[in-house]
Design brief:
Elements (H helix, E strand, L loop, with lengths): L23 E3 L11 E5 L9 H15 L7 E5 L3 H13 L2 E7 L4 H9 L3 E5 L11 H11 L3 E3 L7 H17 L6 E5 L4 H11 L4 E7 L41 E5 L1 H15 L5 H17 L5 E5 L13 H6 L31 E2 L4 H7 L8 E5 L9 E2 L3 E6 L21 E4 L4 H10 L7 E6 L2 E7 L10
Parallel strand pairs: 2-10, 3-4, 3-6, 4-5, 7-8, 7-10, 8-9, 11-12, 15-16
Antiparallel strand pairs: 1-2, 12-14, 13-17, 16-17
The structure holds pyridoxal-5'-phosphate.
Length: 474
Amino acid sequence: MGADAGSGGPVYDSVLDAVGATPLVQLHRVVPAGGAPVWVKTEWANPGGSVKDRAALNMVLDAERSGALRPGGTIVEGTSGNTGIGLAMVAAARGYRAVFVVPDRTTTEKIALLRAYGAEVVPTPGLVPREDPRHVQRLAARIAADTDGGWLADQYANPANPAAHATGTGPEIWAQTGGRITHLVAGAGTGGTLTGAGSHLRSLGVQVVAADPESSRYGGGDGSPYYVEAVGHYLHPLTDSDDWPAVYDPAVAHRTERVGDGESLRTLRRLAREEGLLVGGSAGLAVAAALRVSAEAGPNGLVVAVLPDSGRIYLSKYFDDDWLTTLGFLDAGPGAAGGGDPLVRDVLEPDAPGLTVAPATATVAELRELLEPCDPLATVPVVAPRRTGETTWSAPDVLGTVSVGALAGLSPGDRIGAHAGPPPVTVGHGEYRAAADARLDAAGVAPHDPVLVLVDGRAVALRAREWLSRPGPR
Ligand SMILES: Cc1ncc(COP(=O)(O)O)c(C=O)c1O
């Protein structure tokens, strides 16, 4: 480390020469006692700020070599951000126009970054089925086809994406650890990093562990929405086929560690506060998995986790206490408004039955049966019609609510989805009850309006807002 310190560091002809050769940094305070050392690959040290600079550069160089991208051409991609930022940087440095289709839940900071490089941004709904013409990849492909000199980078199917990691990231890690690495831990978005670096290191005897959001399809989850961005595989409930990226080879990882959003985000906060590493959500996921692997591997192992990007572009989410608290990831601190009051979870009746939900495709007759005996005041969340096996619902799964009373006058065969009210407002289980009540009051939520209680971003109870105003235990 610090190999260039004597010379003052390298001098490059182009910013693109600075892509790759990122440092490894050892973790200290978060690693379990008796566990293997955990070293992290600091991919935010790439000049565009993420691991995707590697794939972006390699895809463009490959397209130039093959003639698919010609001088004066336009680079087009559907991307949740970092690949776009990498491609935007490469486009600016090499003189191309760039157009990016991004899902609407992409952070405003990431969109601003794309525009700062001079790129054009086309937002599109993120949660639409793959068959929808507005789907990120479909729309990007159409724009590339309709643009003179347009070239679709197509990171999900472009072999130059994993190749960047098979020839860069993987060999770098091997060399930096002097061949002592025993376990590689990485998340998979396109799967480029895991497939490329993983296949190289696996061939050298390294155990490869995929870190995956709990509900992601890659690790066997139900595909429901999660809050850690840019990794895992979400499945829209109306998508017919579950297509995985062509560049992702599931056979490369020896096993998968499935990590819930809560564990990933709490690990992320610890990395910032206890290690001085301000990193993104997928890095929190990778380290959470790496800490499990470390505990298992023991002191003779050496675990390397790939940390894809910096936390700077997530300040308004993962590092915002209000964001975390209202989604149920964090308890309000003693200094927060309402301190001393009971928390929302303290006033939830412990013996209340679990959350009953109704799929939007259920009929009125089916819902009545579900809610038998019918309490006319009962209100239930209406959820996205779903994959099998799901037992909890992420906040975005809840499409609306329906009250039993509102079903009167409907015919038994009517689908309830068409009669549901708007999605309910949400409160986190660790908010101070009075503070949550005041927040909802200020937002104009009426006393009888339904409120969804969240734990780690997932629904656990539905109550009328006035329930928050009732005196509870102290
Ligand atoms: C923050 C972040 N983490 C992880 C990944 C996943 O990397 P890969 O596409 O190589 O699987 C991405 C990809 O865009 C990303 O932006």
